[in-house]
Every structure is written in structure tokens, then in C-alpha cells.
Design a protein that fits this description.
Layout: H1 5-9, H2 16-49, E1 53-58, E2 60-61, E3 71-75, E4 82-86, E5 92-98, E6 103-109, E7 116-117, E8 121-122, E9 128-131, E10 135-136, H3 151-162, E11 166-167, E12 171-172, E13 176-177, H4 187-199, H5 201-217, H6 225-255, E14 261-262, H7 269-278, E15 282-284, E16 290-292, H8 294-306, H9 318-341, E17 347-349, E18 352-353
Parallel strand pairs: 1-9, 2-10, 13-14
Antiparallel strand pairs: 1-5, 3-4, 3-6, 6-7, 6-8, 11-12, 11-17, 15-16, 17-18
Helix pairs in contact: 4-6, 5-6, 6-8, 7-9, 8-9
Length: 354
């Protein structure tokens, strides 16, 4: 038999299982709200209780002397928190109101010192931080040396050294360039070098010796005795001076050629021999290029031609000119070979032996 009493009453009673579920759900919601609210209130209270800290320190140098007047900068991630102080007479500095939980760095700069930067540091509430390792080192000096190559200065130094070149420190050896990149001689220096060789005491002694040898062989035919020796001495001196001045100064200046022998010193023996043998016929121009040695050959030829003016009649003529020219050229070849393989070893330059 069906029961219609509940339908007739007009009410909707809740069953016991549904009531229980509803109570559990409400309790869980209240617990969740309480759980979320307690930490937030705790953090707010903790933040409100945080107190600012303080950073102090003393700036010293490597000798542990204090550094007054140094600039100390406090930096934080927040660009607004940027402070600067200057150290006192005893190198002391301090920063107040340091926020806890923020990463700060301290940077110190001072004149003549290298910069110093601290590692990142985070202070706790009301922490008193002492920087005890702020030590500045002397800034390394940066010296910029600007080297200016002045050919005129280099040429002057080379010429001064050229004038000191002597074999065994005695015999003049001024007409040899031991530096293949030597600066060319100016016209003035070509004349100065030629004059220096001409009047050198060793040159004069050599002239007297050659005149004595020619006196013994009666060449040229000036005659015997002191008069003949004097004439021979004058002829030998005139030959030497005219050859040096014409072939070593006048023609090199006009033709822009270098009258010196350029020492090779390296390479095979055969290449050095070729270099020495051809030196009377090939010269370096003032422009650095190799060219026919018109100066040397022209000087020998001109000197031999001038000898016709003061040699005895029996010794004049084409035979004298070309004979002396050939002898002079052969002497240059021999001298170049000696320079390349022997004389250079015994030449003093600036007081030092090669």
C-alpha cells in the first residue's frame, strides 16, 4: 500500500546523507579561508617588524694607510636607492637605512688608485655590517709611447756613426754602410765625408808612404831627391783628393747616387763575391734603387784625366788616363772583396768591433 502522506504535507525534508555531506563541505571551506589568511597576516607582521641596517667601513691602501676623500657609492637593484658619500680624513664611511633582504654592492674610487667593488650583500633586519677588506691598490700606470720615425734624425745618427768607423780603431773606413737600409746621404754629408777622408791623418801618412814607393820606382818621372819626392807626394795627394771629391761627393750629389759600399755580410759565398766585384759598376741611388755606378767610374776617369795637368810630359796621354782608370777600378774591386770578407770583422763602430 502506497504512502502519500509526505506529498500531502507540502514539505521536502533532507535526508541524513545529504546533510552530512553539506556539513563536511562547509567545514572544509572555512578551514581553507583560515589557512590562507594566517600566512598573509604573518608576513605582513614580519615585514612591519623589519628594521633597517647599517653599513660602515674604512678605506685603506696596500700600506694600510687610510685613504681620505675616496668616493664610496652604494648601489641596489632599485636604481632609486643609489647613494654616494666621501670618506673622512681617517678613511671612514657609513650608510644608514639599509633595507633588509635587498642585494647591495659598494664601489670605491679614488685618485691614483684602482677601483674596488664589494661582492653582493644582503642584510638581515637591523644588521650592522662592517666592511673590513676595503683595500685600494695603486692604479697601474699606462704609458703610451708614440714612436715617430724621422728619416732626418735617423740619417744624422747614422752619419755620426759612419764617421767613427775605423779598422782596428785606426784606419778610416768611412765609406762602408753596414746597414742595408741605411738612409741616403745628403749632398752636404757626401762632401763632409769626402773632406774628412782627404784630411785624415792616416790618409796623409798613407800618401807619404805611396809617394816613397813611387820614389823608389821612379814613377812618375819627377826625378830623384827631395824635390822629386815632394812632387810625387803632391801628385799622389792630388790623385787621391780629386778621386775622392769627384767620385765621392761631386758626381754622387749631381747624379743622386750613394758613394758607399753596402756590406752584404749574409748569403752564399758566391753571392757575396758577386756583390763585391760588381760594386764599382753598380751603385745604390738615393731613391734606394740599384743603378750603374756612374759616380765611381766617372770619378776614376776624371781623376786620371786631371793627372795630365801635373804629371811629367813623359807620363801624360791616353795611356796614363786609361792606365790609371784601370788601376783605380781594380783597386776598388779588391777593396770591396776585402770589405766583404775581412775588413768588416775588424772595423770599430762607435767604439765597438763588428
Amino acid at each position: 500500500m502506497l504512502d502519500f502522506s509526505r506529498a500531502r504535507s507540502g514539505s521536502h525534508p533532507v535526508s541524513r546523507p545529504r546533510l552530512t555531506a553539506f556539513l563536511y563541505f562547509g567545514a572544509a571551506a572555512v578551514a581553507a579561508v583560515l589557512t590562507l589568511s594566517f600566512p598573509a597576516s604573518g608576513q605582513t607582521a614580519q615585514k612591519a617588524d623589519a628594521k633597517p641596517g647599517k653599513i660602515i667601513g674604512t678605506v685603506i691602501d696596500v700600506n694600510r694607510d687610510t685613504v681620505p676623500g675616496a668616493t664610496v657609492v652604494l648601489n641596489a637593484p632599485d636604481e632609486k636607492d643609489h647613494r654616494t658619500v666621501v670618506t673622512t680624513e681617517n678613511g671612514y664611511f657609513e650608510f644608514h637605512d639599509i633595507q633588509p633582504g635587498v642585494a647591495y654592492t659598494v664601489r670605491v674610487t679614488a685618485k691614483d688608485f684602482a677601483d674596488w667593488t664589494s661582492p653582493s650583500m644582503v642584510l638581515e633586519s637591523a644588521q650592522f655590517k662592517i666592511l673590513s677588506d676595503v683595500q685600494l691598490r695603486i692604479r697601474p700606470e699606462q704609458t703610451n709611447v708614440q714612436v715617430t720615425y724621422d728619416p732626418a734624425v735617423v740619417a744624422t745618427q747614422e752619419f755620426k756613426q759612419q764617421e767613427t768607423q775605423r779598422v782596428f780603431g785606426v784606419l778610416p773606413n768611412f765609406y762602408v754602410a753596414y746597414d742595408e737600409n741605411a738612409q741616403p746621404l745628403t749632398a752636404k754629408r757626401k762632401f763632409l765625408l769626402a773632406l774628412k777622408v782627404s784630411v785624415d791623418p792616416v790618409t796623409i801618412v798613407g800618401t807619404a808612404f805611396v809617394a816613397g814607393a813611387k820614389q823608389a820606382s821612379n814613377s812618375p818621372h819627377f826625378g830623384p831627391g827631395a824635390v822629386g819626392y815632394g812632387e810625387r807626394f803632391g801628385a799622389v795627394a792630388a790623385d787621391g783628393v780629386s778621386d775622392i771629391m769627384i767620385g765621392g761627393a761631386i758626381l754622387p750629389s749631381l747624379l743622386h747616387q750613394d758613394p758607399r759600399y753596402f756590406y752584404q755580410g749574409t748569403g752564399t759565398t758566391s753571392s757575396r763575391i758577386r756583390h763585391a766585384i760588381f760594386s764599382p759598376f753598380v751603385a745604390r741611388g738615393d731613391n734606394g734603387n740599384w743603378q750603374p755606378n756612374y759616380s765611381s767610374l766617372g770619378g776614376d776617369l776624371a781623376s786620371s784625366g786631371l793627372a795630365n795637368l801635373y804629371y811629367p810630359k813623359s807620363n801624360r796621354g791616353a795611356k796614363l788616363v786609361f792606365g790609371n782608370f784601370g788601376i783605380g777600378t781594380a783597386e776598388r774591386v779588391g777593396a770591396s772583396l776585402a770589405q766583404e770578407f775581412l775588413i768588416g770583422r775588424f772595423t770599430r763602430r762607435g767604439g765597438k768591433m763588428e
